[in-house]
């Protein structure tokens, strides 16, 4: 949610005329995240989030916006995309695809407690079940092929220790046949900054712009790695157990997923280690750009490589 594309007051005011959302009151850029330009927007008809998509194009976006519509229409705490006066939920602003979604109440948490981890596990399981009735399909743009290509780009630019870790993990991941694992719609980025709470009540799941069709267990691994690990990279047993139990209350993992689980956890950590290392090595320009330290995910990856996972 960094700000790469500036939007002036007049540009935003003119943009909002296409929507039945009232008059512009104020707006501000959101500095969190790393992929898209995001603004909080207040109008006389409510509070919104405006997203300008920096890497995704018009052909990719109907899947994400359609998924949000699908989930919100079934009572899931996902923001509903606004529709223009012409009925479109995807428009353009300053040469970029743009969407306006209703801003949900609540705030993200930096240090989650047990109850919040339980709520996230339950919400993730419910997402996977609700996604079974969604007709859309999208490949994971950060899947194995991306990991291979990104690693190859990074290898000439990193130090010897980083190179050894990347090459070793690529070889290990080649053993995993993702097609043998149950597939469905996944969020793929359910980090702490993408879930909203009012105290311990989960009020919103946001930022579906990495959502795709992939192994459901991978989504659980991504979420556990962020919500339930300590700064040194090791899992926090209480939070880890509560999240997995809550997830399994909605959807149970099968034998293939349990057998593949150690490598799935590593794949989830490897994906974010590579993306953060890439952004660290090849920084992007922007008005407010938040680049996350890859070392956190190096520690998580190395923990999973060296230790057996906690029981599911």
UniProtKB/TrEMBL annotation:
SUPFAM superfamilies (alphabetical): Protein kinase-like (PK-like)
One GO BP annotation of this record: threonine biosynthetic process
Positions of transmembrane segments: none
The EC number(s) this enzyme carries: 2.7.1.39
Protein's pathway: Amino-acid biosynthesis; L-threonine biosynthesis; L-threonine from L-aspartate: step 4/5
Reaction(s) catalysed (UniProt annotation): L-homoserine + ATP = O-phospho-L-homoserine + ADP + H(+)
Pfam families: APH
GO molecular function: ATP binding; homoserine kinase activity
Domain Aminoglycoside phosphotransferase span(s) in chain numbering: 28-244
Keywords of the record: Amino-acid biosynthesis, ATP-binding, Kinase, Nucleotide-binding, Threonine biosynthesis, Transferase
InterPro entries from the UniProt entry: Aminoglycoside_PTrfase, Homoserine_kinase_II, Kinase-like_dom_sf, Pseudomonas-type_ThrB
Family named by the database record: Belongs to the pseudomonas-type ThrB family.
Protein name (record): Homoserine kinase
Organism annotation: Stagnimonas aquatica
